[in-house]
Design a protein that fits this description.
Layout lengths: L1 H22 L3 H8 L3 E8 L4 E10 L5 E4 L1 H9 L4 E6 L5 E3 L1 E6 L4 E5 L20 E6 L7 E10 L8 E4 L10 E3 L5 E10 L2 E6 H13 L8 H17 L9 E4 L2 E4 L6 E8 L7 E9 L3 E4 L2 E3 L2 E9 L5 H12 L16 E8 L4 E10 L7 E9 L5 E12 L1 H14 L1 E2 L1
Antiparallel strand pairs: 1-2, 1-4, 2-3, 3-7, 4-5, 6-7, 8-9, 8-11, 9-10, 10-13, 11-12, 12-13, 14-15, 15-25, 16-17, 17-20, 18-19, 20-24, 21-22, 22-23, 23-24
Length: about 425
Amino acid sequence: MFLRRVSLLTALLVWASPLVAQRSITTSDVFSRYADRVVKIQVVETSSAAKATIGSGFFVTPTGEVVTNYHVISALIHDPGRYRAELVDVTGAVRPITVLGVDVVHDVAIVMTEMRPRAHFTLGRASVAQGNRLYSLGHPEDLGLSIVEGTYNGHLPHTRHARIHFTGSINPGMSGGPTITEDGRVIGINVATAGNQLSFLVPVERASALLDRVLARGGEPPARTLEDIGRQLRDHQEAYLSGMFAGETKMVELGPYRVITEPAPFFRCWADALRAHELPYESVQHRCSTDDQLFIAGDQSAGVVKLEHEMLSTRTMNASQFFSLYTYVFAGDNTPGGQQEHVTSWRCGTRNVRNASVPMRAVLCLRRYRKLGELYDGVLKVALLGRGDTGLVSTLTLSGVTFENVDRLARRYLEKISWR
């Protein structure tokens, strides 16, 4: 009996030994093995020598190519006369960097320094199961190189371009750093956080593809990076807008009206209603928006498509009172803000229009991107006419699109509005 117990105990120990070995790898082990491959990237305002942006990056070749986020170095790209960018390695050595390539749609960039790293990460396809432990490295709030444990939770379902959901505390300054497995495989690039352990990564495949393109042209920097960014944005918006609002489109009924909802799977929609006894009217609101956007510079972003419908109705106001309320709501400013160095002022035109069955008052506002070629932001706002106790104000907002797409989508949008 004793021998049988010993044999059973031995078998259990042998079976459990791989688990013991797996658990023996600690966070400090991962940090000590891979920390020297991670760098700080700082963008400095030249005249004051003050840091304007702090981010992270990591070596991916023995010749000094580094992956980071586009948004980390965007100020340098948009105003190279005002800013310079530097790389700071784990020893504190500082080197200037050169931008070799940008993928603005996926927020990835490749930069280079003359520094030759002692070790580097190798990019390639890497898959892990949901729930696996990952490790994010970077420079949070310029407090020094740090490591964060977290959990892989797969790709976000409602996005046009892939993002990985990482349950861990990625903080500002860690953008551009790697998130890796315990054996050093890069899973993604730190890109954003929503707080409360909600963080997001760019899949490693996007950085790998950009690196391949950079190396294929011999590691030479592009002649005109801003022109390349403008081309990427035009190609991107054409791909996802070409069929929008065309053919069969999801519709929602608001009172006596039918309007567009959830134009594509990457939209998310919300609704609410205001029904207060002290108010002489009711308001029903329905909003849909793309679930992600493309960072351009400062407070400027592209890739946003937003629909907003507000139905107003009354049982107690007379026609004149309701018309005053309706006019006030329609006159509200729905145009996004923006820095003058990036976009022109808004220009608007107003006219009465009619589709097959509905008369409308419409205002269309446009502004142009100053540095990115023929790209615009557009806002179309319409008020449906013909009733004295019910009205609908509907707004379509587009960002980073060509004038042709503003015109095409505005026409399709108006054509879809109808009575029930």
